[in-house]
Design brief:
With about 575 residues, the chain is α+β, with helices and mostly antiparallel strands. Helices cover about 45% and strands about 15% of the residues. It is built from 23 helices and 13 strands. Strands 1, 4, 5, 6, 7 and 8 form a six-stranded mixed beta sheet that branches. A three-stranded antiparallel beta sheet has the order 11-12-13, with no helix packed on it. It has a two-stranded antiparallel ribbon with strand order 2-3. Strand 2 and strand 3 form a beta hairpin.
Length: about 575
């Protein structure tokens, strides 16, 4: 397929006339074409298409279709149908009224090509660049970030279902890629009887003994297939089939191979207590989406899928207006008002595996913002995102992270009695620490813990054991207190940040972060962002980026269509109250 880069086709006169007549006040699709037509061009996609072969559909047009599709939360079939029957879509796409459009299968092939060539962000970045040129977003302002869970597009499987479905998926792939080899390797009739239909827990035997026997059969079949695929006589490309590699991993994480008393080789299911199981970050849960993971948040939320982090602007650039605490308080109150006229645009989308903690996403998010030249002056985040190292690193790049640092989790601090770390006085020059009872530390040892620099401070047993406050200070069996400190700059910044976040002024300023919850809810309502449409991290990432682009054009459309002089609606009760007051 070849492509010659060009802009969106011009709107035919007849299409324009009918669209203007039918939508006298305009529509989202019409305003997107009028205001953002230059964003949707072919040039960013040139690397994904060749220069020879039959010309394909314009990727600029398909990207616009995809954005409109997500803005209206449509399926591929519905989006293809809208391109045929919706006048405003024909206007946006520059199509004749009699144009029959395109087949819906074009859209998944277009998305696959984008994911393959790493062009998921092409349209999002061009739209953000357009907004920068229009002074709608810029570096140096305030931005806020939050995450939400994303449920995968595949069904949940228990361990027995996972084993059976993994065998079934491998058999289907081999039956398509190497039918002759498969026929020579297994009893096709027997395996077809067992794996012809999908493995479903509802149709499994109700008896526990019979279910365990079935799980054993699944494990034995998986072992048979893997040994055949990895045998020296097997074609080398057999083991490169993704479903075969997935089956091998599921076999290892689900079963153990051992020899019984009779010397026979036996396959049995792993037990977490005795055999151990892989950690959740690498444990597969479906053969059809090997990137999705099980994760939990708190005690009530468990999901299988991914996690998305959304970052949005929540303030004009620093160069445009002065900063003040009173203004921050007014902005925080304005977040609760539905009729706010402040334009807030999504500046970054970051999709990760469900098991990746939020703190691991902070640096990549800020790096993405820096690359697009929209780094914030103040970055508002919840307590899951910061660490002392990240706060210092961000400050070095001119970003002030407004976020609550986690409190001291030592037993003394949790119990709110005894001597927490803050009760000790540190002499950094002398490399000594003085406890509340006046004893001086006996040891100061720079170490590396979990890849980070730290300092371990030790007090002498001779000082701690006779101390009358020892029970309030330490419960160590060795009878001496030890402290773990970060390097001086990190320690002092952490201490100052924890003291600041206990003030009312900081809480008032931090209230601005709460508005991102509304953005997550809008993304859920408009684009259904919490449910993955596709399988695999690359395509789920593409979905989220186009969802964010769609959300931005929805907000821009509201910005264009809003009349600033229009009076807000008032209820009958409010009007009656005003009449009585008058």
């Amino acid at each position: 397929m070849s492509m010659r880069p060009k802009d969106l086709p011009p709107v035919p006169e007849q299409t324009a006339a009918v669209a203007r007549k039918a939508f006298s006040k305009g529509s989202l699709a019409i305003r997107v074409r009028d205001h953002l037509g230059g964003v949707f061009t072919d040039q960013p996609f040139a690397g994904a298409f060749g220069t020879r072969g039959a010309p394909g559909l314009s990727p600029g047009v398909l990207s616009l279709v995809t954005v409109l599709q997500f803005a209206e939360n449509l399926t591929d079939r519905q989006a293809a149908a809208m391109a045929v029957r919706a006048i405003d879509w024909k206007y946006a796409l520059g199509m004749e009224l009699a144009d029959t459009g395109f087949d819906h299968t074009v859209l998944p092939r277009f998305r696959a090509r984008l994911a393959e060539h790493g062009l998921e962000r092409a349209v999002f970045d061009r739209l953000l660049e357009h907004c920068k040129e229009a002074d709608l977003v810029a570096a140096g302002g305030k931005q806020r970030t939050d995450a939400t869970h994303v449920i995968s597009a595949v069904r949940d499987l228990n361990r027995t279902e996972l084993a059976g479905e993994s065998v079934r998926a491998a058999l289907e792939a081999l039956a398509s890629a190497a039918p002759s080899w498969l026929a020579d390797t297994i009893d096709v009739a027997e395996f077809a009887h067992r794996y012809g239909e999908r493995i479903n827990g509802w149709t499994m035997p109700s008896s526990r003994t019979r279910r365990e026997k079935l799980a054993h059969v699944f494990g034995q079949d998986a072992l048979t297939l893997c040994r055949a695929a990895y045998a020296p006589a097997a074609p080398p490309w057999i083991r490169d089939i993704e479903a075969v590699q997935t089956l091998r991993q599921v076999l290892v994480q689900t079963y153990c191979l051992h020899t019984d008393a009779r010397g026979r080789e036996v396959v049995r299911k792993r037990e977490a207590e005795t055999d151990g199981v892989p950690p959740g970050s690498i444990r597969l849960a479906s053969p059809y989406d090997t990137d999705a993971r099980w994760a939990a948040k708190g005690e009530d939320l468990f999901w299988y899928g991914y996690k998305i982090h959304l970052t949005e602007s929540c303030h004009a650039p620093a160069e445009a207006e002065a900063e003040a605490e009173a203004e921050a308080e007014a902005e925080a109150e304005a977040e609760a008002e539905a009729g706010t006229s402040v334009l807030r645009l999504i500046t970054d989308v970051h999709t990760t595996l469900a098991t990746i903690p939020d703190v691991k996403a902070t640096a990549p998010i800020q790096q993405n913002l820096a690359e697009r030249q929209v780094s914030p002056g103040e970055h508002y985040l919840d307590s899951g995102y910061p660490s002392a190292d990240l706060v210092v690193q961000a400050a070095g790049r001119g970003i002030s992270m407004v976020t609550p640092l986690l409190a001291d989790h030592s037993p003394q601090a949790k119990a709110a009695e005894g001597f927490a770390k803050s009760a000790f006085r540190i002499d950094w020059k002398a490399r000594q620490v003085r406890c509340p009872q006046g004893a001086t530390s006996a040891g100061w040892y720079p170490v590396t813990q979990h890849g980070r620099d730290a300092i371990v401070v030790e007090f002498a047993r001779a000082d701690c054991r006779p101390c009358p406050s020892r029970t309030k200070c330490t419960s160590s069996a060795r009878g001496a207190r030890m402290l773990t400190l970060r390097p001086r700059e990190l320690h002092e910044r952490t201490t100052a940040a924890r003291a600041e976040q206990d003030t009312d002024s900081w809480r008032t300023k931090y209230a601005l972060r709460a508005g991102i919850e509304g953005t997550v809810n809008q993304a859920l309502d408009v684009t259904g962002i919490r449910r993955a449409r596709y399988r695999g991290l690359p395509k789920v990432t593409l979905q989220h980026i186009y969802s964010a682009t769609a959300l931005n054009i929805v907000r821009l459309d509201a910005w264009w269509a809003t009349d600033p002089l229009r009076k807000p609606r008032t209820s009958r009760l409010e009007r009656l109250s005003h009449q009585l007051a008058g």
